[in-house]
Amino acid sequence: MTTPPAAELNFQDRFAGAASRLTAYVIDVAVSTGVFTLAVAGASFVASVITNQSVSWNRTNIAVTIIYLLWEFLYFAYSWAASGKTFGMALLGVRVVSADGAAATVRQAVIRTLAFPLSFLLLGLGFLGILLQHDRRALHDLIAGTAVIYSWDARAARLRFLARDNPPIPR
Amino acid sequence: MGKRVTDPVESLAQRVAERVVDLVVRSLDVNALVQQIDLNALVDQVDVGKLVDRVDVEKVVGRVDLDRLLAQVNMDDLLARVDVDALLGRVDIDQLLARVDVAALVDRVDVNEVARRIDIDALVTQTDLGAVIAKSSGGIVGNALDVGRSSAVGLDEFIARWVDRFRRRRYSGPPGPPELLQPARPAPPVSPAVAPGAAISVVEP
């Protein structure tokens, strides 16, 4: 099997594709929701110990839902403003930058987080830009002036593989 | 009347003189004569400097056909007679190197071109550099991350390729933001036997 031409390119600093971004988002939602659920469960337990009554908070409670939305906002906005990547994006090796490639600003991070739900409207048509746009930008990227790029150095990973699989001959 | 008498006499005298000189020269032993001459004393009397000053060296050299001269030289024979070791022994390498402007020399070297010629695969697999990389990089977690990322990038490319195929466009890899865009740096091809999940393994459509 010959290596396809695209595989011989290092994609670092190039626009990231749909699969990497979707996987990162799924991981982020799972992690942030998991952390929130644990926090709510912990808070419920503490409240039940203090009040000596059975307390069971969950997301059917409007207050909990509002706090959950605030937490999600903080999780994404802070991560993008601080380093350009959330936990899931760090795992997948992608990050958010300004459309021209500069580091994303706090303002852009906040706008991106607020505009993110808009991409889900109209059956997720806002995400089509990732597939169809030249620069792979979704609706929330266009609104915030951001883009998502690969930050992972494939060549370095390749060398690590080579080093692991071919230990040097002892002299 | 006087002229009528003198002309034949002059002519006679001329013929006599020529004959006498001829007889004298024939009777002379030139070799014996030369042997009696003290050549050193003669040469000592010659002002060589003055003589050389009168020679137009440039004119002489200008008349020499150097190509023809060199064509007659057997270079192999000439070089065979040169003692290269002795020649090199007379060269002061330190002094020679001291005269070399290393900075200017390095400036003329295209380091990127040199780096491109390096077989990174061979460097990693055949030297201790591989061990250094293996030690410095993460263990199982790092390995899993590399595999996961390369799989995701492979899927990205697979999707992008198919989308462009439906749109009847030629796919040439993802572009990048202008500030980060650099000329594409080709990496050496991946050997599937060595690193099946390494780099970006793109699924052939």
Write the layout of secondary structure elements.
The complex is a heterodimer of chains A (171) and B (205).
Chain A: H1 18-51, H2 62-82, H3 87-92, E1 94-98, H4 106-115, H5 121-124, H6 128-132, H7 139-144, E2 146-150, H8 154-165
Antiparallel strand pairs in A: 1-2
Helix pairs in contact in A: 1-2, 2-4
Chain B: H1 2-27, H2 30-36, H3 39-45, H4 48-53, H5 57-62, H6 66-71, H7 75-80, H8 84-89, H9 93-98, H10 102-107, H11 111-117, H12 120-126, H13 129-136, H14 140-166
Helix pairs in contact in B: 12-13
Provide a brief overview of the structure.
Chain A has 171 residues and is mainly alpha-helical. Chain A is built from eight helices and two strands.
Please explain how this structure is put together.
The complex is a heterodimer of chains A (171) and B (205). Chain A contains 8 helices and 2 strands; from the N terminus they run H-H-H-E-H-H-H-H-E-H. Chain A is mostly helical. Chain A has one domain (12-163). In chain A, strands 1-2 form a two-stranded antiparallel sheet. The two termini of chain A are 34 Å apart. With 205 residues, chain B is mostly helical. Chain B folds into 3 domains: 2-55, no CATH class; 64-136, no CATH class; 140-205, no CATH class. The longest helix of chain B is centred in the C-terminal third of the chain and has 27 residues, at 140-166. In chain B, 11% of the residues are buried. Mean pLDDT of chain B is 77; it is low at 187-205. The interface between A and B is large, with 53 and 60 residues.
List the defining traits of the structure above:
heterodimer; A: mainly alpha; 2 strands; disordered N terminus; B: 205 residues; mainly alpha; disordered C terminus
What is the spatial order of strands in the main beta sheet of chain A? 1-2
The radius of gyration computed from the alpha-carbon positions of chain A, rounded to a whole number of angstroms, is 21 Å
Overall structural class of chain B, as computed from helix and strand content, comes to: mainly alpha
Using only CA atoms, what is the Rg of chain B? 46 Å
Strand content of chain A: 5-15%
Q: How many helical elements of chain B?
A: 14
Number of helices of chain A: 8
How would you characterize the largest beta sheet of chain B? none
What would the principal axes of the Cα set say about the shape of chain A?
A: globular
**Low-pLDDT runs of chain A:** 1-8
